[in-house]
Each structure stands twice: as C-alpha cells, then as structure tokens.
Amino acid sequence: MRFLAFLFLTATFAPGPSFSASLPVQDSSRKLMQWGSENTSIDRKKHSVKLTGNAYVYRENEVLRSDYIEL
What we know:
The protein has one domain. 15% of the residues lie in helices and 35% in strands. The chain has 1 helix and 6 strands. The chain has one helix spanning 2-12; strands at 20-24, 33-36, 39-43, 48-52, 56-59, 62-63. A 3-stranded antiparallel sheet has the order 1-4-3, with no helix packed on it. The protein is globular, with a radius of gyration of 11 Å.
C-alpha cells in the first residue's frame, strides 16, 4: 500500500509547476513515513509536513529516493 502511495505521489508531484500541500506524518509509534522535499517544514504540533517542490518519500531513515534530506 505504501508503495502505491509512493507511485501516486511521484506521478502527481513530478517535476513541473510549483505546488504546496500538507500531508500527514504517521505517529512515531507506528512505522514512520514522512514526506519531504528540498523545501520542507514540519509543524510538529499538528504533525503535518508542508511540501514545496518535488515530493520524495522517506521511511525510518531508509532512502527511497537518492536525494535524502535529514528531517
């Protein structure tokens, strides 16, 4: 299921026009999946990630794309 979400996001947020979106960050007690980009800000109180630019997927420090960003 997560892989399908990854494919959907990479297809939806492929390089092109700028965009901004808010996506949920799962509870850290579960397997953590965060969405990041070159310009990423996390509102830790609301547990959301604001994206600007291309979307990349990170899961528990495992890099699913080559451009890894420390969150």
